[in-house]
Give the backbone structure.
Amino acid sequence: MKKESAKSLRAFAAELAIYAVLVTAYFFLVLNLLGNWLYRLDTQHRILYAVVALLLIVGQAVVLDVLTRALFGLLRRRWR
Amino acid sequence: MFFPISNSHIDPLYLAIVGFLIGILGGFFGVGGSFIAGPALRLMGVDWNYAVGTDLAHIVGKSIVAARQHRTLGNVDLKLGLIMAIGTIGGAEGGAQAIQALKRAGNVNTVVSWVAIVVYFSISIFMLWESQKTLRSHKGRSQNAGEPKADHSAFGSVTKRIQRIKIWPMVSLPTSGIQEISLWTILLVAVIGGFFAGFLGGGAGYIRMPSMVYVLGIPTHLAVGTDLFEIVISASYGTLSHAIKGNVDILIALVMQTGAVIGAQIGAVATQYFAGPKIRLAFVPLPLIGVAIVLYTLLTGHKL
């Protein structure tokens, strides 16, 4: 039982580590590629800015979560 | 780092750390963490309207991650969450309109600060009283050993009376163990929570999570998970509404979210090791931290 919970805790920590790398990379990508465009959008097209802002936030949570699980699954298969 | 949308200079590491801490609290207590995020952004010189809107934006992503984690633990009542989302959105719009009116009147910072102090302080005092009373009355019973999700409340008799109010239509919430409750009671709780979400920022979990436990009678673990699910919907709406009004700096929100999504997962997993009254007792200092930060900024005149 203890072994099992230690194993699942390790898997959880590994998944978190992958996720942390991805979310940080995602932010820098958005900052470099969309930073100026977002600023202009906020001043000129508020409604579009609002939609893009929500998509960026949801994307960071959902897409990266899916990506993390896929990556983690791939790594686990390689380790076996 | 300069954030041009809100015209502010903030260290991104500070934002990520604040996000991480709020993420843990969010995942564990089912709150957005605005009682800390709002003042923490104000402390860095971000205007209240931006602090409120930006905070809502980062809450969306963090709550998606935490709610997913709680769903796998069986802590989400989807039916209750969807009903509450309707009321919360209505209330949130009212709160956002109140912020706009205060912006036009030119005293948004002072009014929001004082309302925040009164609300946060009242919640802390009530939860301290209730959780201590519950823990004292259940001392010696093996609540922790077998069933960490088993829940009791010293406010239980009032909750039962509220559940007996028969105003049609009545709904049943089998996932939460409630046979029958008036739809209007659920909506009222949601509207009040939503108003504070729009007015003070965040998902208003600091009001809704306790309300779900004390007014609706939802077990604490389910209240935490369901609240997070509901926050995803209502905070998304709030983000859109505030962004259209020019109150969201999405770049600040994204930096905060890098820390928050990690913390949220840790917090969500941690809930399974604690009983309901202990989670509620641990909740008590959180709004008080918010009070302390708002008081500090008020007394020192730091950008208020």
Remarks:
- Residues 10-136+152-300 of chain B form one domain.
- Chain B touches chain A at residues 4-5, 57-58, 60-62, 64-65, 68, 236, 239-240, 243-246, 248, 250-251, 253-255, 257-258, 261-262, 265-266, 269 (CB under 8 Å).
- Chain B has one domain: 10-136+152-300.
